[in-house]
Each structure stands twice: as C-alpha cells, then as structure tokens.
Design brief:
83 residues; alpha+beta; four-stranded antiparallel sheet; 4 helices; 4 strands
Length: 83
C-alpha cells in the first residue's frame, strides 16, 4: 500500500507494506494498547471486528494499483492511497 500526500508545495510518499499493516491491526486489540485509548473513544474501537478487517486487507492484495482514497481539498492538499 502506498500513501501519497501533497501539501504546501511538498510531496510525501509513505510506503506501507501489508505485513506492517497486518501487525498494526493485530496489535490494536491488545490489552496494553487498549489502556492508552481514551474512554470516550473506546466504544468506537471496540465496534470494529479486527479479524474481519485483517482478512479484508489480505484480500486487497490481489488488486494492486487500485486507488482507495483520492481526495483534493480547496487549499491544494491532495491525499491518495493506492494498493
């Protein structure tokens, strides 16, 4: 997965391999991470089925080059997420 950000005349490229993405999804549900999530936000985090989300990202590997997000703001900021 690749994240492209263009803001204020600067361009950023953030590569995000699927193995790191899967690790991040796995670790969010761990008790030591849950401790640092504010109580008002925990209800939203607990609503997510993390195993199903991980499975969905694994299925997306087959669609390399697909643009998931392509946003352009009025101030010229652009964000693109490509698989």
């Amino acid at each position: 997965m690749r994240i492209y950000i263009k803001a204020e005349g600067r361009k950023f490229f953030i590569p995000c391999p699927f193995c790191i993405l899967n690790f991040g999804i796995s670790i969010v549900n761990a008790p030591f991470v849950q401790r640092y999530i504010p109580e008002k936000d925990k209800k939203y985090v607990n609503m997510i089925d993390w195993r199903l989300l991980k499975k969905g990202f694994n299925d997306l590997k087959e669609y390399r080059g697909l643009k998931i997000v392509d946003v352009k703001a009025k101030d010229g900021t652009e964000v693109t997420i490509t698989i």
